[in-house]
């Protein structure tokens, strides 16, 4: 299965992104909400990355071990489908907090994504127009608190 996916990615996806169809609204609805993942900074300190996905843009925030905001950017996005592959295309990124505050990037950043339960897999660096090195990120859905049904 994975071999077929990678073969598809490297042989078929070099076609322009415009060949992909716009995704239906249900794809956007499925991604709405807050997603989180953990990583480390340059000194091996824990960093929490949270992204909140809205209908037309995403807010990404990084906090350090003390919960202090160390970075934030907003980015617009669109979803597309190309056969069985789902594309997440970022554009119009603006850094609001951090060392690169004020930086703006207009270029498109295409990624492949897959939603599986409460996990969102995003593969960067696999589409021809993607300038990032190959990387797969796993995000976990933050579920809102549920009312206690016993009350």
Describe the structure.
The protein is mainly beta and about 150 residues long. Helix content is about 10%, strand content about 50%. The protein is built from 2 helices and 10 strands, in the order αβαβββββββββ. Strands 2-3-4-5-6-8-9-10 form an 8-stranded antiparallel beta barrel. The chain is globular. The N and C termini lie far apart (about 45 Å). Mean pLDDT is about 85; it is low at about 1-15.
Describe the SSE topology.
Blueprint: H1 2-12, E1 21-22, H2 25-31, E2 33-40, E3 46-53, E4 57-63, E5 69-82, E6 85-97, E7 104-105, E8 109-116, E9 119-124, E10 135-141
Antiparallel strand pairs: 1-5, 2-3, 2-10, 3-4, 4-5, 5-6, 6-7, 6-8, 8-9, 9-10
Strand order in the sheet with the most strands: 2-3-4-5-6-8-9-10
Largest sheet features: 8 strands, antiparallel, barrel
**How does the overall form come out from the CA principal axes?**
globular
Order of helices and strands: HEHEEEEEEEEE
Class from helix and strand fractions = mainly beta
Q: Count the beta strands.
A: 10
**Terminal residue distance:** 47 Å
The fraction of residues assigned to DSSP E strands is over 45%
Instruction: Point out poorly predicted stretches.
Output: 1-16
List its traits:
mainly beta; disordered N terminus; 151 residues
Write a concise synopsis of the structure shown.
12% of the residues lie in helices and 50% in strands. It is built from 2 helices and 10 strands.
């Amino acid at each position: 299965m994975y071999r077929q996916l990678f073969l598809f990615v490297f042989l078929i996806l070099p076609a322009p992104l415009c060949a992909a169809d716009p995704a239906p609204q249900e794809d956007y609805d499925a991604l709405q909400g807050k997603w989180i993942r953990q990583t480390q900074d340059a000194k091996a300190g824990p960093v929490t990355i949270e992204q909140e996905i809205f209908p037309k843009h995403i807010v990404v925030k990084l906090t350090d071990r003390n919960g202090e905001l160390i970075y934030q950017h907003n980015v617009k996005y669109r979803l597309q489908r190309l056969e069985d592959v789902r594309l997440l295309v970022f554009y119009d990124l603006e850094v609001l907090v951090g060392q690169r505050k004020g930086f703006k990037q207009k270029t498109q950043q295409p990624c492949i994504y897959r939603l599986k339960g409460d996990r969102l897999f995003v593969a960067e660096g696999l589409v021809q127009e993607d300038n990032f090195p190959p990387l797969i990120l796993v995000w976990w859905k933050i579920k809102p608190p549920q009312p206690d049904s016993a009350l």
